[in-house]
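ENTRY TYPE: protein
CONTENTS: sequence, structure tokens:
***
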Amino acid sequence: MQGTSLYLPLETAIHRLHPVAKVLGLLILFVPALAFNDPIWLGALLGCSVLLLLAAGGGENLRRMGSFLLVLFVMASLMWSLFMVDLQEPHVLLVLGPVTISRESLLYGVAMGCRVSSLLVVGLCFITTTRPEEFTYALRRLGAPAPLTLALSLSFRLLPTFAGTVTTVKDAQQARGLELGRGGPIRRMRNYVSLVAPAFGYALRQADDLSRALEARGVMSTGLKTEYRVFTVRPVDWVTVVGLVLVAAGSVWLRTLGYGELLERM
């Protein structure tokens, strides 16, 4: 299961930040991406997000998620480019039946692809540098209700857990003679369909085991709970959060001045 986790146990400056600082930083870094809608500004922001991920030692995760990021960028760009119909006086480039592609819609689509990719890269940086236990600790320190903390911490583990389940089922099916890589694309898709039922069945069994384990540990009890590990707030944590707040506020201020604005919308 460890091989499916995106967390990388390194000793970078971002890894050493207080968990609360990392959670707040994640939320604050969403603001610049939402403030602008010009492809040049968002492209630069995407580049900064990639540099941040590399500074956190997340090059391996970037390679692992590279194909997904590329597909997400292309699909997001196409969706906004092809289906923007409320533009005023657009510069039409191409008409394909009911679909009209204009210069504005094309640029806005590229900007949205950069925005979505930037948000995902920032989230990937957070996952790369934060253990699930640290995420849970940060939520409790921020005063989140116990049920919400439990739900978010479990969702934090959901992708690695389900990926490990799919890998286990795939290896078991291949050991029984299933050839997933045989044939053309249609044949391969049919081969992978055979993994759906056992993968979900195995996942449901794991969910039942997880619920029993949580009950046995008294997760939802109302008694006083102690922390296994306590993190100390350092000056660098305060400096990081304040610096990111200034970056977010500066982004909003620049947008109000008209910078980074392609269209008058989010």
Summary: Residues 146-175 form the longest helix (30 residues). The radius of gyration is 22 Å. The chain has a mean pLDDT of 84.
